[in-house]
Write a structure and sequence with these properties.
- 33% of the residues lie in helices and 16% in strands.
- With 289 residues, the protein is an alpha/beta fold.
- Helix 6 links the parallel strand 5 and strand 6.
- The protein is globular and about 60 Å long.
- 46% of the residues are buried.
- It binds iron/sulfur cluster.
- The site of iron/sulfur cluster has 12 residues, from loops.
- Iron/sulfur cluster (SF4) binds next to loops.
């Protein structure tokens, strides 16, 4: 059985010292091992941004896509081989800005993906512009007079479109993050994990010290993740001074892949040899590799 170390590769991260992405990276490796997965069973898909470098630093299958587009690419991969555990590693800009419609569609289809959002409430890689989760009045280089936009509420949004696994975690609470990610990786269907991730360089206002006294664990507060009304109430009423982390909702419903007859009857497409043209593949390989 793999350990977290088995997901190490020799590439060293270029993240700023103290960045919340380090804990997420460690959390992912530990959760993958805890979920009983081996590197060859995992596909990590990034978009563009600091968050999306995580696949480069992890020993597993990986794909770097376009800004805002990791979700449809991840779902394409899942449809080609639904035996893989497919995980999107993207930021709040990628997921709640450019790729928002992809998130909504993946959730309402219950696509077999985990969508991990490193939510630092700013565009970090491009050096500090307000993002879809920045608060109103937030001053950045692109909003010198303060952002006019109301921020997205990712938890309420995911609940509203029928998300079967909707969670929030905090990169300053590694043990809890590992637990939430393990549950997400083993969930059958689409899992959204919104992770509060301090960007120490461009968004020091939302730091570890800001979040630590505010977060509390839903599991310790007795929240029942099958109770939609309770999840909705929490998502709408608690933010700012009191921030719940944990699984808001988890229910079991048929996944998109299970509802597709060609997959449910025949197994993963990559193993259905009648769809596989060895000669065409050899020509493609010759051309592109
Ligand atoms: Fe992390 Fe922000 Fe640095 Fe990017 S810019 S690596 S998010 S601290």
């Amino acid at each position: 059985m793999a350990t977290a170390k088995d997901f190490d590769n020799p590439v060293r991260p270029t993240w700023c010292s103290g960045c919340g992405n380090y804990a997420i990276w460690n959390g992912v490796k530990r959760a993958l091992a805890q979920a009983g997965l081996e590197p060859h069973q995992v596909m990590l898909v990034g978009g563009i941004g600091c968050s999306s470098k995580l696949p480069d630093y992890t020993r597993a299958n990986g794909f770097t896509s376009l800004h805002g587009r990791p979700i449809p690419i991840a779902h394409g991969i899942k449809l080609a081989n639904h035996d893989l555990t497919v995980i999107v590693s993207a930021g709040d800009g990628d997921t709640y800005g450019l790729g928002l419609s992809h998130l909504i569609n993946a959730l309402r289809r219950n696509a077999g993906l985990t969508i991990m959002v490193h939510n630092n409430r700013i565009y970090g890689l491009t050096k500090g512009q307000y993002s879809p989760t920045s608060p109103v009045g937030f001053r950045t280089k692109t909003s010198p007079a303060g952002s006019l936009d109301a921020p997205i509420n990712p938890i309420a949004l995911a609940l509203a479109v029928g998300g079967t696994f909707v969670a929030r975690a905090f990169s300053g609470d590694l043990a809890h993050l590992v637990d939430v990610l393990t549950r997400a990786f083993t969930h059958r269907g689409c899992a959204l994990v919104d992770i509060l991730q301090p960007c120490v360089t461009f968004n020091p206002g939302f730091s570890y010290d800001y979040y630590r006294p505010r977060v509390y664990r839903l599991e310790e507060a007795g929240h029942d993740p099958t109770d939609f009304a309770a999840a909705w109430r929490l998502a709408q009423s608690e933010w700012g001074e009191r921030v719940p982390i944990g699984v808001f909702r988890q229910v079991q419903q048929p996944t998109y892949e299970e509802r597709l007859p060609v997959l449910s009857a025949g197994g993963p497409l990559v193993k259905q040899m009648r769809l596989w043209d060895e000669a065409a593949y050899a020509r493609l390989r010759e051309k592109f590799i």
